[in-house]
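Worked problem 6 (solution included).
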Amino acid sequence: MHDTDLAHVGGLSYLNPSAPEPYASFIEQIERVRPYLGELERWIETLKHPKRTLIVDVPIVRDDGTIAHYEGYRVQHNLSRGPGKGGIRFHPAVTLNEVMALAGWMTVKNAAVGLPFGGAKGGIRVDPRAVTKDELHRITRRFTSEIGLIIGPDRDIPAPDVGTNAVTMAVMMDTFSMNRGGTATGVVTGKPVALGGSLGRHEATGRGVFITAREAARHQHIEVEGARVVVQGFGNVGGIAARLFHEAGARVIAAADHGATLHNEAGIDVPAALAHVAENGSLAGFPGATPIDIEDFWQLPCEFLVPAALEGQITEVRAPRVQTRIVVEGANGPTTPAADDILKDRGILVVPDVLANAGGVTVSYFEWVQDFSSFFWTEDEINDRLERIMVNAFGAIWRVSEEKQVSLRTAAFIIACHRVLEARAERGLYP
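Solution. The predicted structure is:
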């Protein structure tokens, strides 16, 4: 591996040089901010090196009596501005590289919207659909015990992500509390409301996607009512965003998830599609639209394209064929840097993940605050506060984008990196 290749992935020996993505994308995004950092540039390497990386073995006794081992991770990318904050992903393709990138994006996301957190992320290499409910319960408990060394309400606060949900968070909270000897509701967010969860948390990420899409449309003089929307991912991000677009009078003409890719130019009945997914686990078999090839999906003419599944979906191969006015990134890292450049050159506005999907962590912040005070807000209060934070963050990022003549992503990174590195510089190095 050449020195230039090492530099491309931050000079980290534990990354695979033959598969540098997605952390290499994160590093490249950081490098694009270098010219705008001024005196803070001397601290830029801080953003390329995760503060703490933990790899754990997660052994359990399966229902048939055999022993199974799963690989788990928790990465704390940066804690300069506060405790770590970021989700837990259960997916068979989870890697250390991916978790590192996701943790880095959480650092940027939290700083970009002004939340008092650093960035962290975790995951287990497991397909939650391939194990029983009891086995998943044991996996979650063992994983929580293993990473309990570095998490806590004032240290690092996990949340749901791909393959996890409120039940996962309840088990994590209970495990941590039992090990500590006292209830610690603030150790995770995204919990059931009965256990200190926040109203509005389940819909928060999708709601934030819609809010930022609406703000982008306003600046681009696009009417949401009557607009065509294409959504990849139909869970609690893409599905909720689709519902809010539908309620605003937009026409969701295509939707895709792990089970099917569907198209209906007249508009998919979103409430019916959501009900179908709730009952069947995916869009497969939904009668209200026609199956199409996934590559055709990316080429559908529309006003809004919402990738809300996994990272690396809009590549330099797909980007030239995308036919949308605005990409709104509901997923983390769905657009590669090379694709980003292609979309920019083609005049397609990209609302970046570190802004578009920040609604989830924003309401997680609300949940954390409510748990500490044991005083809970109404759902209207939650949504009003979310609206205000997202709109203000969008406005600030748009202004920097216009002032510096850079993309919204680079503008968000400029704001975030200034905040993180200023905190790093003010705190100094210890010892």
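Discussion: The first helix runs from residue 3 to 8.
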